[in-house]
Amino acid sequence: MSGNTFGKLFTVTTFGESHGAALGAIVDGCPPGLPLSEENLQRDLDRRRPGSSRHTTQRQEPDQVRILSGVFEGKTTGCSIGLLIENTDQRSKDYSKIKDQFRPAHADYTYHHKYGHRDYRGGGRSSARETAMRVAAGAIAKQFLAAQGVVIRGYMSQLGPIKIDFKTWESVDQNAFFSPDPDKVPELEAYMDQLRRDQDSVGAEITVVAEGVPVGLGEPVFDRLDAELAHGLMSINAVKGIEIGAGFASVAQRGSEHRDEMSPDGFLSNHAGGVLGGISSGQPITARLALKPTSSITTPGRSIDVYGEPIEIVTKGRHDPCVGIRATPIAEAMMAITLVDHWLRHRGQNADVSVTTPRLGQC
Amino acid sequence: MSGNTFGKLFTVTTFGESHGAALGAIVDGCPPGLPLSEENLQRDLDRRRPGSSRHTTQRQEPDQVRILSGVFEGKTTGCSIGLLIENTDQRSKDYSKIKDQFRPAHADYTYHHKYGHRDYRGGGRSSARETAMRVAAGAIAKQFLAAQGVVIRGYMSQLGPIKIDFKTWESVDQNAFFSPDPDKVPELEAYMDQLRRDQDSVGAEITVVAEGVPVGLGEPVFDRLDAELAHGLMSINAVKGIEIGAGFASVAQRGSEHRDEMSPDGFLSNHAGGVLGGISSGQPITARLALKPTSSITTPGRSIDVYGEPIEIVTKGRHDPCVGIRATPIAEAMMAITLVDHWLRHRGQNADVSVTTPRLGQC
Amino acid sequence: MSGNTFGKLFTVTTFGESHGAALGAIVDGCPPGLPLSEENLQRDLDRRRPGSSRHTTQRQEPDQVRILSGVFEGKTTGCSIGLLIENTDQRSKDYSKIKDQFRPAHADYTYHHKYGHRDYRGGGRSSARETAMRVAAGAIAKQFLAAQGVVIRGYMSQLGPIKIDFKTWESVDQNAFFSPDPDKVPELEAYMDQLRRDQDSVGAEITVVAEGVPVGLGEPVFDRLDAELAHGLMSINAVKGIEIGAGFASVAQRGSEHRDEMSPDGFLSNHAGGVLGGISSGQPITARLALKPTSSITTPGRSIDVYGEPIEIVTKGRHDPCVGIRATPIAEAMMAITLVDHWLRHRGQNADVSVTTPRLGQC
Amino acid sequence: MSGNTFGKLFTVTTFGESHGAALGAIVDGCPPGLPLSEENLQRDLDRRRPGSSRHTTQRQEPDQVRILSGVFEGKTTGCSIGLLIENTDQRSKDYSKIKDQFRPAHADYTYHHKYGHRDYRGGGRSSARETAMRVAAGAIAKQFLAAQGVVIRGYMSQLGPIKIDFKTWESVDQNAFFSPDPDKVPELEAYMDQLRRDQDSVGAEITVVAEGVPVGLGEPVFDRLDAELAHGLMSINAVKGIEIGAGFASVAQRGSEHRDEMSPDGFLSNHAGGVLGGISSGQPITARLALKPTSSITTPGRSIDVYGEPIEIVTKGRHDPCVGIRATPIAEAMMAITLVDHWLRHRGQNADVSVTTPRLGQC
């Protein structure tokens, strides 16, 4: 597979640059008979949309998605689904000075060397703009999973140095940060306002949880469910780390402490994060992503140009001071896409399996 | 692709259970003309081998690998390479009591529900035994990369609560822990001896580094190099977390601090860990893996059996009190396999690209 | 991979139904730096376009393609290329009676049973309309191959019972049949006119040739070049047979007669059709496709409806009396796409191979 | 995927050269719980085995297959299945003169140019010896299909110029030719004896039929079932043509004649060959393969050597005067493998589809 396709049975292929004519995706392998409409997709796109608060980029994109195929009389047909979002608010003149420059910590340098010829406007294909299509495709995946009783939700668990503990799911969609603790929001806002004054940026940590996942998803040994989740989540721009369950805390844990014991009433803990031996256990699947701070900051930085000469870069344009603020819907989307792919792969190979052992409830 | 194949152009497919007749692999897509012998593979297999110190499982497996095809007169032919390791020291009687029991934190429960019918002896396919084939296949990948000037080496950077700072590469292969600091070894040994007396286990953190990687490897947007590395590394048994470069430390970093500035003499830092925009930058690629503590400990634990009844489990048999101790060669292997796959994919698509911009040296 | 993607390194993914909003494709893995414009694609689309002669369907579709990404300042960037063609002339009312009926020899029955819910208008996804995207994507492939000196051309070698011998390439694009013999055209026209009066249809045979292909393309044993060509060509609607080189004539040939001997001046014959051991030999690659007669004819036929009741079907609407008449550009496209995919795969794995043995010229 | 893997969900990966140490395969994605033993595989291997009649190569290979993993207590576990056949009767001294020569119509020339370094003994990887693994893997596929009521059988429908009409299935395994007409056998034997005296070879046509296939298998538009069958069948050594159903006869057929009408009692004909719109219709799937005459004949032929110098080649060694004679089990195997892959892919995506329309019986 080429790099712009994700999945084996349920596949998502995308295209589109930051300043190109449009963004698009083809979702293939979606089971037929699933109710689907543009509204289903628009909901998650609106959660991700730039320009929706003063804390995110001021580029105004309506991000209106069209479904061009694969849906008939309100339900999927099982044929490939074409999605399209026309770009409307690209300001190309912001980038003309940058065509011969490599912005530090951006993909300019690597794209230049890999491809030789790159669309330098706004990061081209390397821009986070392409994640809009992941969210649109992920909404289709979420729709299928919801019909199976699987719910995927995420939240921001850390903004820069500020840890955010989980309080309620309801809070998450009621503030611009996807914070699960409403009481933290003023502190987060104050921090962001200062960041903007400092002309700097900071990283974030997102936690995403899938509940209601049945036991059995995942394809050992290489396509273990956690490995594929790591793949999908780390493919998101700016992600530098992934944890499942106890994650890096597992390093110092004793086996007697880490292991999730079982009883007829269910698992007694969930350090595994819902994945055992690379296969879902029925417990909530919890993953955490570490996002690096945005590289597009107005503080000058040292770099070189395409001739190898030293230059100083000041990134202008409209940028997110913290990309993590809009990452939650993207992480949910990638988790959803991965889970649907594995749902179909699992039932494809194992549809005849029938066991009498009762499935354990969650802890 | 099925779950037992990794890679797109350079692929590794494996088979083999802990107590089966043999383990095997097919490596496909290896460039022709590469000098290759069983000795090349055996070297890394011996680094991984169980029974080589008192700190690892006492199962004695010679792990002698045979090359059955794809090599002629000492060089690869470009055709598929078959590898085989016969199992010799499986003690099946150790596991007969366990056929109807689910050992907590093992894959027994999930395999049972996914497949309905499982080889329960020693963990069957879920056992870390299969990683022997990854190491053998990875040795082929390392051979190719070495010819291109790429070196991949790993070490243990943390054992349970004990952090191990990097001192020298030479130390790494001179102790049973793959510790890069020889002075830490007595402390590690003492810790392990106590762990064994406690009948418990602990996790570990492995760091693996690839140097000499040219700029340009990686296939955005989904097959970003870091995403694929995360996939390959997290597919290793017991891995619960992956970091690239600054990893989770990126969360609290400012953009002005995290970004790796550039000068004509090279990059000025490497928080990115050698991957920018999902493409290798030419800097050393650094990844860290968090391994959970082994689930096979002799301390009794609560669980259920296949009828859903509560039971108490005591895991007997010969097990690693810290699987991390043998994980270094496996992590190196997965990184090597991923890099070769991307080497071939990159030159397949971009062989005609030629840029005059000088490549930056490492920091 | 899902069924709507073709290729491994150079991939084409398509969507779009006969009466949907639009058709689209994503071409991924195209090497960067290739000059590309909408005109390059439109040329081949116009050759395929319906409504361009009285011998093809009277549906008028301008088939104007847009390139939405992956091209910057007139050259490809190496990123995924999005293509879009808006449908404009679908007449849905022609099909409303057919929603509960299965037209014999159409995909209605099989789509109904496979998916349960189908877009019945004009054949939905099973309609030959989707081949417009193959032609558009194939034009990109042809562009790359032309830059390498590879030319792909096809022609009609048989219309119903009328065999057409090859005379010149120039004739092919000068008549509506893609006939390589201008003198045959009146006979073909007369035959077609009678066919229309008979309210019937007939099959056709297309020959497609690739010249200038270097030795070495193809990936034994399963992805032999001829096997992949067969796959791509037989995936075209209505194809029931494929031949490479001598094809079915090989059955009765002696080995002494079939084998293509070699001399320093080149091959002495080409019964192999340019593929030896599944790898291109440098000789022209010749393939022939057998296309069945169109199933959409106005002559009544017996069938059943979705309730299993017997019915009589008369297919109305605007249809090709011989789908073969427009198949030539589609066959060229599939051959081009397959060859580019193998070009990239071959150089990906074998870029370092260098042999001194001279390459043989063509016979 | 690399060229030595076939399939998407149910995959077969093989290795092994004619004169290498062993042949092997890994079958992945086999549903669990399927009874499987080495006897199941040996049966079909024995049908294919060289040295079993005077009409085939005189190389004596027992072709004893071992199952090394993926089967426990007589049933598959769902994990990857490793298969191994040790080569025992390779006579390498027969080929030493040929290392610098290209035998006409063999893959020597193309392998040399593709890979630069080849195993020249007995054709290396290009030899038909590798098909033993396809037959072994295909036996697993057949086992699964048989449990679903699908039967795959093939026969020789033409030997050189001699057409063989189908009489009974029972005859097929009672003669060395897989002839479905016992009365033809003396004529075939006489023809072959003369061929041997002429030091020549001839081609053959094989027909393979799958019965009991349910409606719904196949993944339009590119992985149409017939396209994938064509891929699998044409990947077999020496195949130059593929037909499905009416095949090339469709060219001259009228639509009114070709179309298979339907009635409540079933289809009224089967020109489609069991595939409609790329999806199985429930009718028998019939495919025909054209095999070219063996290139290894003792009649001298003109060729060149690795220096480009003209030479005369006389192929010694032990060869099949008609490779078609052993092709039937290989064609059955490839059809079985393709059908299982599609069985799993279909139920993976469409397991929830339920239609009330009755399925049609066969004609």
TrEMBL record, chains A, B, C, D:
Ranges annotated as biased composition (Basic and acidic residues)? 40-49
Enzyme category, top tier: lyase
Listed pathway(s): Metabolic intermediate biosynthesis; chorismate biosynthesis; chorismate from D-erythrose 4-phosphate and phosphoenolpyruvate: step 7/7
Keywords tagged on the record: Amino-acid biosynthesis, Aromatic amino acid biosynthesis, FAD, Flavoprotein, FMN, Lyase, NADP
Q: Name the domain of life.
A: Bacteria
Q: What is any Pfam family matched here?
A: Chorismate_synt
Chain positions recorded as NADP(+) binding sites: R48, R54
The molecular function GO annotations come to: chorismate synthase activity
Please tell me where FMN binds in this chain.
Answer: R125, S126, S127, N237, A238, G277, K292, P293, T294, S295, S296, R318
The EC number(s) attached to this protein equal 4.2.3.5
Record region (Disordered): 34-63
Q: Describe how the cofactor binds.
A: Reduced FMN (FMNH(2)).
The answer, when asked if Cell wall biogenesis/degradation is one of the entry's keywords, is: no
Subunit organization: Homotetramer.
Q: Which PANTHER family does the entry mention?
A: CHORISMATE SYNTHASE
UniProt-recorded name of the protein: Chorismate synthase
Organism of derivation: Halomonas llamarensis
Q: Give the gene symbol.
A: aroC
